[in-house]
Amino acid sequence: MRKYSFIALAALGFAALLNSCAKGEKSASSGALASNAAEKVYVKPGTHDDFYAFVSGGFSGQLSVYGLPSGRLFKVIPVFSQDPEKAYGYNEETKPMLNTSHGFIPWDDAHHPDISQTNGELDGRFVFINGNNTPRIAKIDLTTFETTEIIEIPNSAGNHSSSFVTENTEYVVAGTRFSVPVPQRDMPINEYKGNFKGALSFLSVDPEDGRMDIKFQLMMPGFDYDLSHPGRGKSHGWFFFTTYNTEEANSLLEVNASQNDKDFIAAVNWKVIEEYVNNGGGTKMPANYAHNVYDEHTHSATSTMKKEVLVVDPLKVPGAVYFLPTPKSPHGCDVDPSGEYIIGNGKLSADLTVHSFTKMLDAIEKKKFDGEAYGIPILKFEDVLAGTVNSGGLGPLHTEFDGKGNAYTTFFISSEVVKWKLETWEVVDRQPCYYSVGHLMIPGGNSRKPFGKYVMAMNKITKDRYLPTGPEVTQSAQLYDISGEKMELLLDFPTIGEPHYAAGIPADIVKKNSKKIFKLSENKHPHATLNDSEVRIERNGKEVHIYMTMIRSHFNPDNIEGVKVGDKVYFHVTNLEQDYDVPHGISMIGAQTSELLIMPGQTETFVWEPKQVGVWPFYCPDFCSALHQEMQGYVRVSPADSDIELSGTLGE
Ligand code: RUQ
Ligand code: CUA
């Protein structure tokens, strides 16, 4: 029976989508005409946007940086994927960033960026983001906008309920989507039920330098853990995770994981577990995972394999975990700025379920349980329910808050953003999205202090919204003004990859800390060439190391002889410039790595393995000065048995 109702719901949803597309077209154009939408997103040439938006790239594995309200793209920060533009993952310095227990993995699926917080407010120091595919959490430093740390998550798979930070960035949290055998082993898949486990990982973040470490993993029943958010204010100390597939099906999940009328939101009291762990609780379990750290002074990354992780059994910590029944395979799990309301969006439902933190504590205190799952107490739905939003939409996914008592929920199937009021649960506005919206973002929307001026919707499908580009068309974001009673669509702009979540922050918090150059005096790269007197070329068997400098508009040296076929040539190149925005690049014909783009004061290395005898040019690929085209040089490559001596010259 259940199966039929699910299919009916999906069909209904499809009809609703078609409907809303047709309706929406009209209201959007009249909306734009009726106001000064263009003016509201116009950022005059030479002036700055009010907000940064860090938008996940989904299957591009990267994070892009946009300005709001203009929707202008400033930078794509390489995180989990190699990037030839910046040589990330290609040069010798950053290759270790992509090391994992599965070897060098130069791709991932990046979903949920979240900005570091102090006292529940955005502090603009770091952005964290998860890699789903080969479970990893990355940290991006917002002084350099570079990825400076990646830690692999063992015992995890499809790292999706990640990476969300607690109120003082005590933890960045990573929950497994797929449950797996822990430890991994060869076993029949159909013995999933009762045997697989779901690890929820709490990564501590050092308050001084931001260094991450897996503090503990909570070993939960074998459900799918979809999304999560921290408690804040009164609920600080708790973390909430949506689950689906509490049926523990292992095949045809679209039917078999939609059997239960309610799945759970898992409420985890991390403070109690932290105390338990600090007092010696938990079990050290053998593991194998990479911890990769980029050092700004050596301009280089190191990768360390870790061999142990601390595992906590929830049943051993009284008061650590409770289940809140939540209808219809909930996806988004969002907490309002006060910390009182926990919203579970049942993606097969039309209504939103809002749980009350106060009621939850009360029910726990009175031990009003409705059974248990694998020993974890289940609270009674009615006892924790704060209210239901009868939305009239279909397929609710994610909710954000404006800090003025309103919440905004996306509906995938009916393709719209719905505005509703906290506490009265009444729907007050709705606007169509083009089309099939997933996440939405209000700057600071996952904090105690949202900046409720704009909401950005991230859409899965664009169809006819842009010029066609063959079968694959862009995905996109849409910006709405939410400063008034009614939301107003202002702008469409294309995104890179599939935008899942985004994190926004007032520009002023970040831009004052943005680094302009790397100081040469602080360059501790082991192969740096800090002035022209250190320029040299050394041979070590078949390895040749060229210690080279660059400054407007030449390389030193620019003529190199004595390299032989079969050599492995390392170019260690230092940019001696100390002015803002004067990078230089170097690219070598036939090099199998990418070019390098080197910032002022920085050193980078690439490897070239010449295969053919000849005189081969290299050049600077970044138009750095009026004489940029003159910034070039040659390497003479002689036969393997040649006895030409290594030499490098400039101006001779
Ligand atoms: S998901 S469209 Cu990967 Cu955050 Cu909800
Ligand atoms: Cu340096 Cu062009």
UniProtKB/TrEMBL annotation:
Q: Where in the cell is it found?
A: Cell envelope
Where does the record locate the signal sequence feature?
A: 1-22
Question: Pfam families attached here?
Answer: nos_propeller
From what organism does this protein derive?
Arenibacter nanhaiticus
Query: Where the protein is mainly located, per its record?
Result: other
InterPro entries for this protein: Copper_CuA (IPR001505), Cupredoxin (IPR008972), N2O_reductase_N (IPR011045), Nitrous_oxide_Rdtase_Sec-dep (IPR026468), Nos_propeller (IPR041114), NosZ/Cyto_c_oxidase_sub2 (IPR051403), WD40/YVTN_repeat-like_dom_sf (IPR015943)
Cellular component terms, GO, for this chain's entry?
cell envelope
Look up the domain of life of the source: Bacteria
Keywords from UniProt, A to Z, are:
Copper, Metal-binding, Signal
Q: What is this protein called?
A: Nitrous oxide reductase apoprotein
Q: Which GO terms describe its molecular function?
A: copper ion binding
